Automatic annotation (TrEMBL):
Gene that encodes the chain: metAA
Species assigned in the record: Ruminococcus flavefaciens 007c
PANTHER family per UniProt: HOMOSERINE O-SUCCINYLTRANSFERASE (PTHR20919:SF0)
Name of the protein: Homoserine O-acetyltransferase
Xref: InterPro entries: Class_I_gatase-like, HST_MetA, MetA_family
Gene3D superfamilies assigned: 3.40.50.880
Lineage: Bacteria, Bacillati, Bacillota, Clostridia, Eubacteriales
Length: 315
């Protein structure tokens, strides 16, 4: 089954050219299927690029997924046109009375700021609190993962001596984890961040469990044991050339940026990067939609409520 998005959204044409099955909302309305309702709070600067990355991953299952896009009303985007935002994005006031099967909150280039210094901090706290009663399962990515761990559990972030930048090997720390079903013993994930969360702080919170980690890049996926929240410090959604573009941007700015780890063959920026994380990324998002959302969410979203039982077998 496809994802359901507006036929006017740039991602509709992008994914169609890649032979990914997308369906316009107009066509989907004639099918007698209750799609999963997923909302993406997109706070990345290049919103159109991030839309395509995430929708590509959400489309790779037999499930029909109805995707909506959410923006911060308290922040003015400088990298995406107001026409695009007005046409395809909603604000929290417009969706706060609705309920969703799943939610994705993206990263943002604000990690070196204290949380309270971020201009939309109060608004995103309101959304994170709302998600506990109006969204069945939420994925937090990169900065959002750190922000979510801080807001929900008081876990601090720490500055790194140098940017965690490149493609790093990871391992699972738990067995029989449905989010990780089918993963290889070692799998690769992009990271691009200047701060970290630490294992000892997470392990003090009884509701949380570290699912995956790297000897180099540290904690990767942290889950609430009830299966409702996943905090992911990496960027599995990245395209092959996303880190290359970030590297070249920083070089052009004259910043002191290292060659991304394990990314360019022979550490030569003139070589095409190896796309070593694509299968894992597709599998993780497919597992999330199937096992963590579709298999658990109420058919009638009006029945959605905070459920506190411990789904050890569903993590």
């Amino acid at each position: 089954m496809p994802i359901r998005i507006s036929s006017e959204l740039p991602a509709f044409r992008t994914l169609g050219e890649e032979n990914i099955f997308v369906m316009s909302k107009e066509r989907a309305e004639h099918q007698d299927i209750r799609p999963l309702k997923v909302i993406i709070l997109n706070i990345m600067p290049k919103k159109i690029e991030t839309e395509s990355q995430l929708m590509r991953l959400l489309s790779n299952t037999p499930l029909q997924v109805d995707v909506e896009l959410l923006q911060m009303a308290s922040h003015v985007s400088r990298n995406t046109s107001s026409h695009h935002l007005d046409a395809f994005y909603k604000t929290f006031d417009e969706i706060c009375d609705y309920r969703y099967d799943g939610m994705i909150i993206t990263g943002a280039p604000v990690e070196l700021l204290d949380y309270e210094q971020v201009d939309y901090w109060k608004e995103i706290c309101t959304i994170m609190e709302w998600s506990k009663t109006h969204v069945f399962s939420t994925i937090y990515i990169c900065w959002a993962a750190q922000a979510g761990l801080y807001y929900h559990y008081g876990i601090p972030k720490y500055p790194l001596e140098k940017k965690m930048f490149g493609i790093f090997p990871h391992r699972a720390e738990v067995s029989n984890c449905q989010l990780l079903r089918g993963f290889d013993d070692v799998f690769y994930v992009p990271h691009s961040r200047n701060t970290e969360v630490r294992r000892e702080d997470i392990e003090r919170i009884p509701q949380l469990e570290i699912l995956t980690s790297s000897d180099i890049s540290g904690v990767h996926i942290v889950a609430n044991k009830n299966g409702r929240q996943y905090f992911i410090t990496g960027h599995s959604e990245y395209d092959r050339d996303t880190i290359a573009n970030e590297y070249r941007r920083d070089v052009e700015k004259g910043l002191d940026i290292q060659i991304p780890y394990n990314y360019f063959p022979n550490d030569d920026p003139n070589n095409m990067p190896v796309f070593s994380w694509r299968c894992t990324a597709n599998l993780m998002f497919s597992n999330w939609l199937n096992y963590c959302v579709y298999q658990k969410t109420p058919y009638n979203l009006d029945e959605l409520e905070v459920r506190n039982w411990n789904w050890q077998t569903s993590l």
